[in-house]
């Protein structure tokens, strides 16, 4: 009975965690504030030695977007480039799945980030199978990452992936709208120039190049204009 109660309490705690973070994911508009808030929350909630979140820019370029904790090996500057060719980060990305290492000192690929770290959990952030980023959590104790915690954090990573995909679509739409607006403005300018050029050409076509007087085409155009004016006045008098 005591074990069942402990499990129930653990699940309730994880439900509270998801509720707190879901609120941040849903209602925070600034992506950097959102990611920083998530990382800071996780570090405090699980007493982590180090927590980082990196995002993919291209196949070879990754940037640190949020960090909490201290590292004696790396500069934890948001926006800085992040190497993914070595360490457990590279291993998790090669495997393309969650990687849990309960004792990092027994993994040959481990690269020290914090001297306090004992266990490390790395979770790829995906959307529709594509990796968008990586959540890296390090703890002084393997007890921080129970099976229930790992399951909840997998769900959290999926939610972050959905948010990132939505923000990417919004950025693309904004860019397209900006380009469409610029194109419409340019077309309007071109149209104005064409109308001005057409008026100039029409005037030149009705004027003798040597004397500046109206030529036969100009005379015929003036005659047509006078005829239309006379018809208009005639119609008014008839009424």
UniProtKB/TrEMBL annotation:
Gene3D superfamilies: 3.30.450.40, 3.30.70.270. The lineage of its organism: unclassified sequences, metagenomes, ecological metagenomes. SMART domains: GAF. This is Response regulator. Residues 30-174 form the GAF domain. The keyword Ribosomal protein does not apply. InterPro entries: GAF, GAF-like_dom_sf, Rev_trsase/Diguanyl_cyclase. Pfam families: GAF_2. Keywords: Coiled coil. The keyword Flavoprotein does not apply. Residues 166-207 form a coiled coil. SUPFAM superfamilies: GAF domain-like.
